[in-house]
Known about the structure:
Strand order of the largest sheet: 4-3-2-1-5
Number of strands: 5
Oligomer: single chain
CATH superfamily: DsrEFH-like
CATH architecture: 3-Layer(aba) Sandwich
Order of helices and strands: EHEHEHHEHE
Number of domains: 1
Amino acid sequence: MIISLVIHGAPGTTQGAQTALTFCRAALAADHRIYRVFFYEDGVHNANALSVWPQDEYDLNAAWATLVREHELDAVVCVASALRRGVLNAEEASRYEKTGVSVDPAFDISGLGQWVDACLNSDRVVSFGV
């Protein structure tokens, strides 16, 4: 089965991002294919490489980045949501003359067209954190 996920919730504020990560791992373990993971609205905070978690808490940002790298997942951060929240890659930081880059390089920044494509090319679409 081909599955795409959309994550709306920020790490540490809702259970959605953690549940999505657990679901994604389970789907991969069951030999399902993850077509795309799309981070939308506050979910873009999951791609923030500058987040620092207390030592006694689970680092959800690092966990997502590790999963994306290990499985070579197509992980897309919504550009409009990211810009509003200061979640920038080098290209967007340069375009808007900002000095900082916060997106982990494992993630791509792109538009909603990537989400439409994911919906068209997946057998199932699962939403987390709405």
